[in-house]
Design brief:
Elements lengths: L5 H30 L15 H6 L3 H30 L5 H16 L2 H11 L11 H26 L2 H9 L4 H29 L5 H4 L7 H10 L3 H23 L1 H7 L1
Helix pairs in contact: 1-11, 3-6, 3-8, 4-6, 5-6, 6-8, 7-8, 8-11, 8-12, 10-11
């Protein structure tokens, strides 16, 4: 609904600020307080300390962060390759078939992640595809859950790209591979980076499927946070949550600077 009056716009902005505060600011603020709390027996915590962050940057936590970054990077890169290939391939088929295959691609994102994890656990616990207990089943779980978003981003980029550009290049004698390498992919660069960024962020926070399939030697940080919370170490879990959010935001910020440079070229 459009708001035309000054009072209405002011009220809409105030409502937006209140909603933002309740949904984002307040939970994050409480998480920050919990990460430095020594005790919390009143309205505000007491005996503030940075010891929880010391635990977050030592021992198992560092290894879990490394595992999360490695899993997110590998799964996002594979999802980007598969999603881009699928989006490019579906451009040449009929509309009805494209709608059907689009729906198939988005099915994993509509299924609860725990169901995906259980399905993979059952499917890959027997020969000849025995992956249970390996890191590959974790990467496959993340890949299944994030591939739809990569496909959707690239498909949106292709839909916004003018078809005349490739037609002109073809009329000038450009081969399909040359058009793909020098025209299509450069124009899709912002969408490709956006797809990778979204996939990486989703992978870094994934818990439902991961907790079903992870092997003892490949524990991601969300699984570690869940384990700490389950043991009652809420303050340590809060510090790890802040670290996870900070690392994810840092990677996304770096990636967000890349489309501008690519567009400039």
């Amino acid at each position: 609904m459009l708001v035309w009056s000054s009072a209405g716009r002011l009220g809409a902005r105030a409502l937006l600020l209140v909603c933002f505060g309740l949904v984002y600011a307040v939970p994050m603020g409480l998480m920050l307080l919990a990460s430095v709390a020594g005790e919390w027996n009143d309205v505000l915590p007491s005996k503030l300390t940075l010891a929880h962050y010391g635990h977050a940057f030592a021992g198992e936590a560092v290894e879990q962060l490394r595992v999360s970054i490695a899993t997110g990077a590998v799964a996002s890169l594979v999802a980007l390759l598969l999603g881009t290939w699928a989006a490019l391939s579906l451009r040449g088929i009929t509309r009805n078939w494209r709608r059907l295959l689009d729906m198939v691609f988005f099915v994993p994102s509509a299924v609860p992640s725990v169901s995906v994890g259980l399905g993979l656990l059952v499917a890959f616990s027997r020969k000849p595809f025995l992956l249970n207990g390996t890191i590959w089943i974790v990467i496959i779980a993340h890949l299944v859950l994030i591939s739809a978003f990569t496909f959707g981003n690239v498909s949106a980029g292709l839909a916004r790209m003018a078809p005349d550009i490739e037609t002109v290049a073809e009329s000038l004698g450009a081969t399909p591979f040359y058009r793909l390498r020098r025209i299509t992919l450069p124009l899709l660069t912002p969408y490709l980076i956006g797809a990778f960024s979204l996939s990486f962020a989703l992978s870094m926070g994934e818990l439902g499927a991961t907790v079903m399939v992870y092997p003892p030697g490949w524990v991601t940080l969300p699984v570690g946070i869940f384990a700490l919370t389950d043991r009652g170490a809420v303050f340590d879990a809060a510090a790890l949550t802040i670290v996870l959010a900070a690392v994810t935001l840092a990677v996304l910020f770096i990636l967000s600077r890349l489309p501008n440079r690519a567009s400039g070229r």
